[in-house]
Amino acid sequence: MLSPNLILLYVDDPQESAAFYTRLLRCEPVAAFPNYVAYALEGGLTFSLWSTRAANFVSSGSGHRMEIAFMVKDDLEVERIYTEWRKAGVPIEQELMTAVFGRTFVALDPDGHRLRVCTPDK
To answer: Residues in domain VOC (predicted)?
Structure first.
C-alpha cells in the first residue's frame, strides 16, 4: 500500500508563505530555497511550498480546490486557535461555527488556500 507523505501547496511567493507557515506551525523549515520550502511534521509527513513562478513549474489546474485540516482535541481548542489566529491577522473565510462534527472555522493563507481547524469525526 502506498501512503502519502507529502502535502505540496503551489504558492506565488514561497518566502512570504514560509513566514506565514513558520508562525502558524511554530517550527522552522528543514529546507528553504528561493522556489521551494519544506517543513518536517510529526508522523513522517512533509509539508512543502512550491513557487508557481519556478522555471520548471507545470500545472494545468487553477484555483484552490482543497483544504488542509488541523484536527485538534476538542471544541475549546478550536475556539482558542480561532481567537489566536484572528489576533494575529490571519484572514478568516468561514467564521467560527458549529457543524455536525463540532466547532470549526476556515482561515486563508497568503495564497488563499483554505485552512480548517476542527475536531476529529465522532
So the answer is: 3-120
